[in-house]
Amino acid sequence: MRKGKQLPATQVPQPTAAELRELPADRLLEAFGRMTMIRVFEERVSGLYANGEVPGFVHLSIGQEAAAVGACWPLAATDVITSNHRGHGHCLAKGLAPEPMMAELLARATGTNKGLGGSMHIADPSLGIFGANGIVAAGVPIAAGAALAAQLRGRRDVVVSFFGDGAVAQGAFHEAANLAALWKLPVVFFCENNGYAEFSPIADQHPVPMATRAAAYGLEYVAVDGNDVEAVAAVMTDVVQRIRDGAGPAFVEAATYRWHGHYEGDPEKYRTKEELAQWQERDPLVITRARLLGRGVPQETLDQIEAQVQARIDAAVDSARQAPQPDMTVLRSSVYAARTPVAEPAWEPAADNEIFRTMDAVRLALEGELAANPDMFVAGVDVGKGGNVFALTRGLYAKWPDRLLDTPISETAVMGLAVGGAMAGMTPVVELMYLDFLGVCFDQILNQAAKLRFMTGGKARMGLVIRTQFGGGRSSGSQHSQSLEALLAHVPGLTVVMPSTPADTYGLLRSAILDPNPVVFIENRQMYGMKGPKPPADYLIPLGKAKVVREGTDLTIVSVSRMVHEAVAAAGALAERGISAEVIDLRTVSPLDKETILASLAKTNRLLIAHEGVTDFGIGAEIAALAVYEGFWTLDAPVMRVAPPPTPSPYAPNLERQWLPDRGSIERAAIALARVLFAIAYMTEALIAFGLEFYQIT
């Protein structure tokens, strides 16, 4: 293949001998039909959008049909593509029917994704279409995850990741390209270089050519005329075959041009009519039609194909218009996959029960599930040979060197491995070394893992676990001490788990791995050395179920993770003062076990919440709102919260001790709440006595 250079918007590469390989006339006719389908579909969508029938944003690829069809030409049904916001052509080229796509764009219940995805999020994992994506470059790490799944299973499947020239400036692209090259993943990075990143010409966006970027990661680089479907098909046939044979990833740059603006309604002040006209002279359909005529295909045959496509699209529009709109049932049912019911375990430790540590619980849970599930893998920074920075996975690499994967320090790529691997049917468990690092990879968690099942109308499999840890109290400073569970709990689609004991860590982690939904499993590093009774190997704890760890009658203390132990200690001290405190361990922050909280509140009539995240907008605020809204008539006193003030975690040990809640601060808050309790009781008794006396006088 030719070594190319970055192309100005008005230039295309000269064809090589490989690219000049002709398709048989019947296959070229098929390619013409596919391109015609894309063109007619998108031209119709443009009109429907202008008429207000297609809501939201629409990004069309008119003019780029040859790139989509040629890139998908050598792909099998088991191969995978990821796409971008301009993805209609890719989906159609991979085999998605236009009828459900049209219904999806018109926001109908019969749409590909039941009206929950729309133009930017078309996907059908059953066809290997892992999703168009509204976040630039977000599909690239997901493609790496799908490619890893194929590699781990020993399959010859290939993944093609479509993106525009603007996406190569994103960190997600660089992390995924680096990882793919390092592991020789079977993925094609297919750049449709249409000369513009939104409104900006490529010269204003990139200091080096695409070929230089590809070379930086050791990727094979191939340039091709993206408006010549035969050239693209020839190049991709060669590239895909080499990758199937184990050659590793490649970067293909297809020079092409979008005829419409970045989005429908774009005023397009950034380019000239002359430039557009120059590219329209190289219309992929006109080029292909001329070749077919030159090879003896009758004009009538081509006209018939165009008429058939037009009729099919007309019928698709009519059908979509008559289809029902989605209702709220699909909205609710598409967020989470149904969980297999797990009963609360009846196990109670005996006096001579074996003792183990929280860190042992993590390792044993991973070990058991790795042994039971050949589709499970563990990935993250130093989780393999090094056994994790806290020694949590030590010994697992020796047993499963192909499934304990040491990644580069590339949190976005790691999360993409989880998302793409889960969609491909694997069971990924990936590690985010510190919860504080959430910010560098949040898109893959917030917009991909949490939303892809929903946006595909429930089609995308998304069973994955993100293990991470947090914990103040060690002078780790503001960037290594944060308790960010409220941020995650606010994202629909995520399950957030925070265990407080070694046994709970074991049972909850196993349940998280078995769960069909994305679970963020947050451990407290202060508790890795904590010891407790070791449960049986088959021990499971249901997700979303809190536990009353101490019975009481005067007030309820709700807490989670390490603060549970502080709350229990405080309850012991309160008992000496004659105050009976009930302590609830949430275990799962989201979904919140409202029933257990409200049942306890109905018994004690007073609520205190203690957590390590800062007070303002923390999980305590949500629990307080629950108490005030659903438990209002059982409340006999204001709801109180014990949590750090709303500042970053301090470094100085004396400041951190004052900043972080402990058993003393919980006890003091409970005493204050109890004073309200006793004051109300006294006043009630006094009023009753006064009322009786008044009645007797009258």
Could you characterize what this model shows?
This protein is an alpha/beta fold. The strands form five sheets. It has a seven-stranded mixed sheet with strand order 10-9-11-12-14-13-19, sandwiched between helices. Strands 1-2-3-7-6 form a five-stranded parallel sheet, with helices on both faces. It has a five-stranded mixed sheet with strand order 16-18-17-20-21, sandwiched between helices. Helix 1 crosses helix 2 (65-72) and helix 1 (25-50) runs antiparallel to helix 10 (284-294). The longest helix is centred in the C-terminal third of the chain and has 35 residues, at 663-697. It catalyses: N(6)-[(R)-lipoyl]-L-lysyl-[protein] + 2-oxoglutarate + H(+) = N(6)-[(R)-S(8)-succinyldihydrolipoyl]-L-lysyl-[protein] + CO2.
